[in-house]
Design a protein that fits this description.
Length: 510
């Protein structure tokens, strides 16, 4: 039977500099969803990459004495290295300087122009170079860019425009009738009431004041505006062609989820649907505008001096500790916060104490009392029932949270089983059972129940902390690591556990 497809993408990272931990959150979040879907049996296509054109890049490259291409090659390489370090299981890493993308963007621009959706005019407006965005006077906040707070400059130049206003009614209808297209609900309301209903202006889609971009095919004085270039990466890289789309495109489009930061929701939920309609293509099934990760409750930025970098954190605490922290600490719709102190506190409480301590205590007792041999005489008592019942219900509980992208709550469900297992040790007192030869089978059952709870927890933790769970499976010496083995009692018996290793060394906060 053919697997059901699942296409997930992140926003492509802008190559203006090294990404900080706030930028990394999105890719880790997407990776956890992609891994979870794969484990559930989906044919997953996970795309990420880099956004490499625009005035900001041209200026930065000039400032350091490089060509724009040399500049973005360096940054794109650094971004890819960080993605790999953080164990991101992407299927394709795309770049908007890839020739196949550039060629298709020109064909897309031509198609929209031929259709009458793009026309030549003159633009005069307030422009933020950092955000590559034009604003009206009324949209500014205290005279500054409403997104980044930086200065805007008045730009006046000949430009091509996309007829966004043509799709006004269709966008209103989309937002009013489809309550799952854009999540969370607060973002949907914001887009509909603050941007669409007040009236959409036609969108500037070319520039003449710089040259680092894809040339407009029929007027090389112009380069394609970065947002038309960037957004189309979601289709160009799976083989979209204006004349003959590939089999891969037909298989994977429409995307199931565009995962993006809340600051670029407008581009993805308003501009992107209009572009797709212009090309007579289906819309993505869903866009999720995730919240931000803040540093000391302030937006992270190099200019603020509060940037924290993922590779530095990973080298200090380990990749899985960083993955766990950002996934657990950012709620569904509200911004999260990171400091070294908070990360260390969560590391000690959850990873070292609850997970690591449970694994080490259980394996140590198995070695001490039964030479690490696993058996299950099934001498069960009433105290076992709630642990087993919770473990058997865990997949459906986690599933509900994952379907809603409530990753933090999914992790809490799994860690609840680990907490219950630690409590189960205190309630059953294996060290007391070990003193009574008549209780040997009961002790074997208790240890089996603990090992099985660890196995089930590890299977469900695989999408979030994959390196750690592989270590646990190796220690348990189990082959049953798939979702199809999640019912309680599937840990093999008559096997011998491997040597325990410390998963997370406790950090001395002093």
């Amino acid at each position: 039977m053919e697997k059901e497809k699942y296409y997930i993408s992140t926003a492509i990272a802008y190559t203006s500099g090294k990404p900080h931990i706030g930028n990394i959150y999105e890719i880790i979040l997407a990776d956890s969803i992609a891994r979870y879907k794969r484990l559930k049996g989906y044919d997953v296509y996970f795309q990420t990459g880099t956004d490499e054109h625009g005035e900001k890049i041209e200026i930065k490259a000039k400032n350091v004495g490089k060509t724009p291409k040399d500049f973005v090659d360096g940054i794109a390489g650094e971004i890819k290295d960080i993605w790999n370090l953080m164990n991101i299981s992407y299927d394709k890493f795309v770049r908007t300087t890839d020739p196949i993308h550039e060629k298709e963007v020109q064909k897309i621009f031509q198609k929209m122009y031929d259709k009458g959706d793009i026309y030549l005019g003159e633009y005069s407006g307030l422009y933020c170079t950092d955000c590559e965005a034009f604003w009206t006077e009324s949209q500014l906040v205290e005279g500054k860019c409403p997104d980044c707070g930086r200065d805007v400059t008045l730009k006046k130049e000949e430009a091509y425009f996309f007829k966004l206003s043509k799709y006004q009614k269709r966008l209103e209808e989309l937002f009013e009738t489809n309550d799952t297209f854009l999540k969370p609900e607060s973002r949907r309301n914001e887009m509909l009431n603050n941007f669409i209903k007040p009236g959409l202006q036609d969108l500037c889609v070319s520039r003449t004041s710089f040259t680092w971009g894809i040339p407009v095919p029929f007027n090389d004085k112009h380069v394609v505006y970065v947002w038309l270039d960037a957004l189309t990466n979601y289709i160009t890289n799976i083989g979209y062609d204006t004349e003959n789309p590939s089999d891969e495109f037909k298989k994977y489009w429409p995307a199931d989820l565009h995962l993006i930061g809340k600051d670029i929701v407008r581009f993805h939920s308003i501009y992107w649907p209009a572009f797709l309609w212009s090309l007579d293509l289906e819309l993505p099934h869903q866009i999720f505008g995730h919240p931000w990760l803040l540093s000391n409750n302030d937006k992270i930025g190099k200019s603020k001096g509060n940037a924290i970098y993922a590779d530095e954190l990973a080298n200090k605490y380990g990749v899985d500790a960083v993955r766990y922290y950002v996934l657990h600490e950012i709620p569904y719709a509200n911004d999260g916060n990171i400091t070294y102190e908070l990360l260390e506190e969560r590391y000690n409480s959850d990873l070292a104490n609850i997970l690591g301590n449970l694994v080490n205590r259980t394996l140590a007792m198995s070695k001490k009392y039964f030479n690490s041999e696993v058996t299950n005489p099934k001498v069960n008592e009433k105290i076992d029932d709630s642990l087993i019942e919770y473990a058997n219900n865990l997949l459906s509980n986690v599933d509900k949270k994952m379907d809603e992208y409530k990753i933090s709550e999914a992790l809490d469900e799994i860690f609840e089983l680990l907490r219950r297992s630690n409590k189960y040790i205190d309630e059953t007192c294996p060290w007391t059972l070990a003193k009574d030869e008549n209780q040997s089978d009961r002790l074997k059952t208790v240890l089996y129940n603990l090992l099985e709870s660890i196995r089930i927890s590890a299977i469900l933790l695989r999408p979030f902390i994959p390196e750690t769970t592989e270590k646990i499976f190796k220690m348990l010496n189990t082959k049953n690591t798939g979702f199809d083995t999640l019912s309680f009692g599937n840990l093999e018996t008559n096997i011998t556990l491997n040597e325990a290793e410390i998963l997370f060394n406790r950090i001395d906060n002093k």
